């Protein structure tokens, strides 16, 4: 299976989207040439991505951390879009390294195995039937299942499972890691995977989504009794604020997991996250890094949150049972995407390694503030592709 997937002839689209895709592809080609098999860092430093720094036993440019898969994830979308073999070859080279990473158990103590192996390994399996992709992704799914805590029914987010500071903690980002388990269940027929997805997403819907339709970034359970304990934040303004990227993960993640499980409560959770997100946007439709801030605030924007939300709104529109609401989600996604294209991208692709500017990684810690980010770039390209090719499916 080596042919491009048939998603139908592209429909007539806004020429700005066509131009934006072209600019992304120009930058991606240049970055592939520049980085080769090395990995960029999480965020830019000014206009350029540094090589991922050495850390402990990991050399500079090594495959570590939670963001490296956004890099080959872009390559697979680019290959689908163009059929250009330069993207396929680059994606397969990184797949080999991801297969090595899971085989050698390098830096696997994280729920972000879902981010990592959906984009780097499931994608080439879906597109090429690549057996190495399937094997690596199934191994990663088994590692992720080790983080499923009974009786709480949640997947622990970070750290060694014996670490008391992280024990029983999950975060809203974890919704995007569940598709790896859904895929593994489809591949193997093993009910453990679907059961973990169902229980974990139910816990997040019940406890991480608040009554006012905002979301906690993190939530703790007692790992021994399963009792829900408290919500908190790691990267938001404060524990009870609404961290913009977390709210965007809620829109997209609850929708994806509704698609997987059929649970109507998850569809409603996605709608609730979307309503709040859209109601608290500033005039240009791109949020501040935390949604406690509004127009006139002296706070940085987070364009990556907008890109994630655009993808989530397109997903929600496909799943929506009410035609008027579906049209509203789609219109909101298109408006946000138009603002990103106009206001948050380099005027000239040669001026930046990032394709989406003005993102925030972790404002409280002063990390990646007003920079490009690997995930911002990935979700921007996914959003553009969704807009250009209705009916196209990403790897999730």
Mean pLDDT, to the nearest integer, reads 96
Instruction: List the strand order in the largest sheet.
Output: 3-4-5
| Residue windows where pLDDT falls under 50 for at least 5 positions | 1-10
Helix content: 40-55%
- CATH fold-type name: Glycosyltransferase
Structural class: mainly alpha
The top-level CATH class is Mainly Alpha
How many strands in all?
7
The number of domains is 1
- Gross geometry: globular
Sheet with the most strands, sense and barrel status:
3 strands, antiparallel
- C-alpha end-to-end distance: 20 Å
Which sequence of SSEs, written as H and E, runs from N to C?
HHHHHEEEHHEEHHHHEEH
Q: What would you note in describing this structure?
A:
There is one protein chain. The chain is mainly alpha-helical and 396 residues long. The protein has helices spanning 15-35, 70-82, 85-104, 113-128, 131-145, 178-188, 191-207, 244-261, 264-279, 303-319, 323-343, 374-388; strands at 148-149, 154-155, 169-171, 218-221, 228-232, 359-362, 367-371. The protein contains 12 helices and 7 strands. A hairpin with a 6-residue loop joins strand 4 (218-221) and strand 5. Helix 4 packs antiparallel against helix 5, helix 8 runs antiparallel to helix 9 (264-279) and helix 8 packs parallel to helix 10 (303-319). The longest helix is centred in the N-terminal third of the chain and has 21 residues, at 15-35. The two termini are 20 Å apart.
């Amino acid at each position: 299976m080596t042919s491009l997937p048939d998603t139908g002839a592209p429909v007539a689209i806004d020429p700005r989207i066509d131009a934006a895709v072209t600019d992304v592809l120009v930058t991606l080609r240049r970055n592939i040439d520049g980085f080769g098999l090395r990995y960029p860092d999480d965020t830019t430093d000014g206009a350029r991505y540094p090589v991922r720094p050495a850390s402990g036993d990991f050399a500079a440019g090594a495959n570590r951390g939670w963001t490296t898969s956004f890099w080959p994830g872009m390559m697979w979308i680019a290959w689908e879009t163009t059929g250009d073999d330069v993207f396929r070859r680059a994606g397969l080279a990184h797949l080999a390294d991801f297969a090595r990473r899971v085989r050698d158990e390098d830096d696997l103590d994280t729920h972000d195995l879902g981010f990592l192996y959906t984009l780097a390994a499931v994608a080439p399996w879906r597109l090429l039937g690549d057996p190495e992709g399937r094997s690596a992704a199934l191994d990663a799914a088994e590692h992720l299942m080790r983080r499923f805590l009974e009786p709480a029914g949640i997947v622990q987010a970070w750290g060694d499972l014996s670490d008391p500071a992280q024990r029983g903690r999950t975060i809203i980002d974890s919704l995007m890691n569940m598709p790896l388990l859904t895929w593994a269940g489809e591949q193997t027929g093993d009910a453990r995977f679907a059961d973990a997805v169902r229980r974990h997403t139910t816990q997040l819907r019940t406890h991480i989504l608040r009554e006012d339709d905002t979301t906690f970034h993190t939530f703790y359970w007692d790992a021994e009794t399963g009792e829900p304990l408290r919500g908190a934040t790691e990267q938001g303004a404060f524990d009870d604020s609404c961290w913009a990227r977390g709210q965007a993960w809620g829109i997209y993640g609850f929708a994806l997991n509704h698609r997987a499980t059929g649970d109507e409560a998850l569809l409603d959770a996605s709608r609730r996250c979307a309503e709040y997100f859209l109601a608290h946007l500033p005039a240009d439709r791109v949020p501040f890094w935390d949604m406690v801030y509004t127009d006139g605030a002296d706070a940085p924007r987070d364009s990556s949150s907008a890109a994630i939300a655009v993808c989530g709104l397109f997903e929600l529109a496909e799943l929506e049972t009410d035609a008027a609401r579906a049209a509203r989600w789609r219109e909101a996604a298109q408006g946000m995407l138009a603002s990103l294209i106009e206001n948050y991208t380099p005027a000239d692709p040669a001026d930046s390694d990032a394709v989406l500017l003005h993102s925030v990684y972790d404002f409280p810690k002063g990390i990646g503030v007003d920079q490009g980010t690997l995930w911002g770039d990935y979700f921007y390209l996914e959003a553009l592709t969704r807009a250009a090719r209705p009916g196209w499916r990403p790897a999730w």
